[in-house]
Amino acid sequence: MKNKILNIKGFLVISLITIILILILKFISNEKVLQEESSEAFLVETEKIILIDNEPEYLFYGNIVAQNQVDVISQLPGKIIKISPKVLSNDYFEKGEKIFELDSFNYKQELIKKKSELEELRNELKSKNMIFSELEKQQILSKKNYDRKTKLVGDIVTKKNLEDAATELSINNAKVLDVKSNIQTILSNIKVAESQVKLAQRNLTDSVYRAPFSGKLDNSFIEVGVEVSTGRILGKLLNTLDLSVQFFVGESIYTHLSNILGKDAQVFWKKSNFKKNYSAKVFYIDSAVNKERAGLNIKAKLEEISKNDPIKPGVFVEVVIQGVTIQESFLVDENSIYEDKFIYILEGNKAVRTKINVEGFAKEKVIITGNKLNNKKIIVTRINDLNLFKKIISKN
């Protein structure tokens, strides 16, 4: 009985080993078949085409320019005796803040002199007005005396008395006219003197140069001890918080942008370690096409710039503007397009060459359109002519 049980156990073990061997052989056989099939087929990646509206992006190159900029010009001759510390550190000036100061001694003396001359004229005018007032009284009395003697001539008034009265009236009239003329001259001189005082006051004020608007200095020649002449350019003040980008658009591309005035733009300063991307809005377009360059100059105002942003006029940037929307279109990698007019669509296990239209670029891809593309599978793996004859299988 014991031997019989051992024989049954041995049989079961042999059967189990046999079944395991059969399964291993079957697995190896299936693996070999799969390898043979995969060696004959070409595996590709595909992407389902979903047609949507896309806006093409146009790339331009331009330079940053300041909206407000002015030459720093000395209005007066003189020596620079003081400068703001911001001149040396190139910090931001607020509107009205002092940039530099000339030696004002001579201008102060000139103002004192002109004020003194004006005061003398005003005092002289007061004296002449008092004299004029007295002379008018004498004139009135002389006129009354003459009129009275005219009525009494021949009775108690002789002709000589009348003549004396007429002479006195004539002398008083002449004195009144003379003083009146002097007063008019003094009034004219006062106006001139007032203008000279204003000029002297302005010169004294101009001896301190203040920022006409907020900004930073550029190309400064301002130093303590430098002798300057009237009209000398000492640098340039730039409003670095109010910047725009100026760029050129070819006539052929301009027609694709449609209503560019007021359009949003993206500005890229690739060399910056502070900030690389800025938003802007187009506010200026040339009124006529430049015949020599066949295009237009365009300006876009940058977003508000922070005081510590290093971007400044002259910086070279890239400008991206979106064009007219392309309806029922699809974005693909340039690598998936052949001869600029074909793509491959996966139908069954075959690659079908399909004609497309390239409409533009967006998001570093190509915008394409074509007939009956929606929901089809585009082959995004680059394939060659030899692979076209193989069985094509999608990985995804």
Number of strands: 23
| Helix content class | 25-40%
Average pLDDT? 89
Strand content is: 25-35%
Query: How many separate structural domains?
Result: 4
Number of helices: 5
Q: Write the H/E string, N to C.
A: HEEEEEEHEHHEEEEEHEEEEEEEEEEE
Biggest sheet architecture:
6 strands, antiparallel, barrel
Please give the order of strands in the largest beta sheet.
Answer: 4-12-15-14-13-16
Descriptive overview:
The protein is an alpha+beta fold and 396 residues long. It has 4 domains: 2-41; 45-55 and 326-394, conserved putative lor/sdh protein from methanococcus maripaludis s2 fold; 59-65 and 239-322, Elongation Factor Tu (Ef-tu), domain 3; 105-206. The chain is 37% helix and 31% strand. The protein contains 5 helices and 23 strands. The chain has helices at 2-40, 85-89, 105-152, 159-206, 251-257; strands at 41-44, 46-48, 52-54, 57-66, 69-73, 78-83, 98-102, 208-210, 216-218, 227-228, 233-238, 243-250, 264-268, 277-285, 295-302, 316-322, 326-332, 342-347, 350-355, 357-362, 365-369, 377-379, 391-394. The strands form 7 sheets. It has a 6-stranded antiparallel barrel. Strands 3-17-21-20 form a 4-stranded antiparallel β-sheet, with no helix packed on it. The chain is elongated, with a radius of gyration of 49 Å. The relative contact order is 0.19.
